[in-house]
Amino acid sequence: MHLAYPAVLSVLLFCIGIYGVLARRNAILVLMSVELMLNAVNLNLVAFDVWLRDTLHSGQALALFTIAIAAAEIGIGLAIVLMVYRNRGSSDIDRLRDTAEHPDGPDDSGYDPDHPDAAAAADVPATQKAEATA
Q1: Where is the composition biased (Basic and acidic residues) (predicted)?
Q2: Residue 43: how many other CB atoms lie within 10 Å
């Protein structure tokens, strides 16, 4: 078998994965696209290992290492996506920008000027705040 067949298949899989990462908004589909890209790399590693007739089979060993890294990545990635879905109600990547800290967000005291109850909390005297926390 020629090296061109697995190489072309690997390029097609990698391009589909890149398209999936760039075009999708769902975090789970982005993770699936990253997995597709890693599988394309694994296909290339094994194909070139067979083509070079390496006696140590270093391409196949590196492919196994990549599979282990991909399994860890998908486990952690899915845990993060599930946590975000439980907190936000959506796994839309565009809505994940809200999780970043804002420059005028909460400071060390816990006061957040953007919070809906911030205006109501500003009207309460400091003595009542201290009594409420005690």
Answers
A1: 95-105
A2: 18
**What CA–CA distance (Å, rounded) separates 40 from 11?**
7
HSE of 106, CA atoms in CB hemisphere, 13 A: 11
Euclidean distance between CA atoms 111 and 122, whole angstroms:
10
CA distance 69 to 63: 10
Q: Which domains does the chain have, with CATH numbers?
A: 4-99 (1.10.287.3510)
Q: CA 53, CA 78: separation in Å to the nearest integer?
A: 37
CB-neighbour burial class of residue 24 (10 A; exposed 0-12, middle 13-18, buried 19+): middle
Alpha carbon distance 34, 111 (integer Å): 39
What is the reported pTM? 0.68
The per-residue pLDDT string of the chain (134 residues; one tens digit each, 9 = 90 and over) reads: 799 999 999 999 999 999 999 998 899 999 999 999 999 999 999 999 999 998 889 999 999 999 999 999 999 999 999 998 898 888 888 877 766 655 555 555 555 566 666 555 555 555 555 555 55
* CA separation for the pair 129, 131 (Å, rounded): 5
